[in-house]
Amino acid sequence: MTFQTITTDIDDGVMTLTLNRPDRLNSFTLLMMEEMIAALDLADADDAVRAIIVTGAGRGFCAGVDLEDPNAFTSARVDPRSTDPDLWADPANRDMGGILAMRLFNCLKPLIAAVNGPAVGIGATMQLPMDIRLASEKARFGFVFARRGIVPEAASSWFLPRLVGMSQALEWCYSGRVFGADEALAGGLVRSVHAPDDLLPAARAIAAEIAANTAPVSVALTRQMMWRMAGADHPMQAHRIDSRAIAARSSAADAAEGVASFMEKRAPAFPDKVSTDMPGFFPWWTEPGWTDAEEQA
Questions:
Q1: pLDDT tens digit sequence for 76-110
Q2: I need a labelling partner for 50 at 20 to 30 A (CA). Which of 82, 107, 197, 203 fits?
């Protein structure tokens, strides 16, 4: 597939998705949202893709929404007082950063952000549903919404406090100030800080570790189990899903290969595929009543 605002490359099981508007510091547009979602759809459907790295072309990661994009604030065109559920369910009226965030949240492949430069507004919030974030020494972050008279978007009010804690999330969002990679590291937003030339190799090393050694179906399940249990009301919900997943995976071909490769001291060759071998209870969160609290311990 040919894209206008991003590029994709697949090598050794890793898709590198590059935001590609370097003359605009990769500022975000409706088309970029659509193309990123299309690339994620392709990655989820392709069993050769084991992990995804997201980075930016040129000197920026993403400088926020392109204010010259006529579709930048589609949800601002409807009456915010409306209580019509159909109005807010319509994607045309939803925050486009949030639509991307929900697609990232639902992704079946691990997501690694390699933040190579300025990342503000949606450039910062789009990283939050990703699993691992690495930063260049030249990276800058900013949850700048209050300085623009708006509020955090892309479901960041859910993601950010879970990643860095409520106090740190509020400080960054209240002030709207731009801060450097070292502060992002100290605040728990990024895993590590790297010299610019070392950033992508470090991200690729993490992705390669996943691709070479783990079962893709297990990774896909683990990703959804971890993220969805972040908002669970009771650990019993996690116990219920753990039990089903352990039962399903223990009887799968991957488990036999995992044990055999360990005993034979060789690299595993897991046969199960995300495209065809996800367990029958997936996606469990669509089942009626699955979130009902069960208080027994």
A1: 567 777 788 788 778 778 899 999 999 999 999 99
A2: 197
